[in-house]
Amino acid sequence: MALRSEDVVSVLVLNLNGREHLADCFESLRAVTGAAFEAVLVDNGSTDGSIDFVRRDFPEVRVVAFGENLGFAGAYDRAVRESPHELCLLLNNDVKVAPGFLKPLVCALTLDPSVAIAGSRLVAFADGETVDHAGGRFTMLGGGADLDKFAKSAPGQGPTATAFACGAALLVRKSVFVELGGFDPDYVIYHEDVDLAWRAWMRGHRVVHVPESVVYHKGGALMGTPESPHRLYLSQKNRWRNAIKNFGAARLAESLAVSIAFDVVRLLRFAANRDGERIRALLKADREIVAEMPRLLARRRVVQRARKRSDADLARLARPRVPHRDIA
């Protein structure tokens, strides 16, 4: 089936003082073929000249400047809601896209109305072949685990089910995004893509990984090493939020037990290494989650009331690598 002319995609590139990445990103978008799109710089209050640079060197790019840092979740939530197009691609600024990356994502959504989110295969920018994300699965800790991380990228054919799609390159239907309430603004960054996909699956939608859509990702360019204290703090809070909001009662009880054991092991390891920074980051996140619990439980009630699929359904349907038409 040919792509329809009305299937124009808003390609939303979020930026905060990332001028050094923007030339690679927007130059690669200039070479994209096979799908109609509008490139948009979504700027979160940059002070490094990013906006002037894009307006001068990439005049075809529409600039949406918020003038302040709304965070990853807050900025994308506003940008998607204000987009004039139904299909919205969330794209990190620290990526370079393959020329044919967009058409397979659009096809995944336009050819199957049950699919609400489609994600790209992310590979390392440096070598063009080491996998960063090839679909993912939910974990008992409330986070998301990337598949094939650090493996060599292998070609695949056709969309397959995935628990979540990485927010570095994620195509979503605006109508479903709004139906789900968008990103949770408390998340700031990390695991908000897991939460969005989790809620989409629970509400009766599908999420797919599209291996033909290749995006080259610098990864970690803005937030440091995978377990920097700041990243540890943010990830810890958000995995707790995911578990508390999205698991059913029985799985939540299991998750709490596993999470407590996991944290005890981590704290002992940090203590053995005399790593006070990470100990403080972990404990700060836990204290803030306890303080947030009344609001978090209220959100859990909203999420659970809207549930159409059980945890058992999700375990069956959101299985990575299964052709999504085989799991109806």
Describe this structure in words.
42% of the residues lie in helices and 20% in strands. It is built from ten helices and twelve strands. The strands form two sheets. Strands 1, 2, 3, 4, 5, 6, 7, 10, 11 and 12 form a ten-stranded mixed sheet that branches. A two-stranded antiparallel sheet has the order 8-9.
Give a nutshell description of this structure:
The protein has 328 residues and is an alpha/beta fold. The protein is 42% helix and 20% strand. The strands form two sheets. Strands 1, 2, 3, 4, 5, 6, 7, 10, 11 and 12 form a ten-stranded mixed sheet that branches. Strands 8-9 form a two-stranded antiparallel sheet.
Spans with pLDDT under 50 lasting ≥5 residues?
A: 1-5
Element order: H for helix, E for strand: EHEHEHEEHEEEEEEHHEHHHH
Strand content: 15-25%
How is the main sheet built? 10 strands, mixed
Count the E strands: 12
Which class do the helix and strand fractions yield?
alpha/beta
- What distance separates the N and C termini? 22 Å
The whole-number mean of residue pLDDT values reads 91
| CA-atom Rg in angstroms | 19 Å
Shape category: globular
Features of the shown structure:
328 residues; 12 strands; disordered N terminus; single chain; alpha/beta; globular; 20% strand; 10 helices; two-stranded antiparallel sheet; 10-stranded mixed β-sheet
SSE arrangement:
Blueprint: E1 9-15, H1 19-30, E2 37-43, H2 50-57, E3 62-65, H3 71-82, E4 87-91, E5 95-97, H4 102-110, E6 115-124, E7 131-133, E8 136-138, E9 144-146, E10 160-161, E11 169-173, H5 174-179, H6 192-202, E12 206-217, H7 229-246, H8 249-272, H9 276-305, H10 311-317
Parallel strand pairs: 1-2, 1-4, 2-3, 6-12
Antiparallel strand pairs: 4-11, 5-12, 6-7, 6-11, 8-9, 10-12
Helix pairs in contact: 7-8, 7-9, 8-9
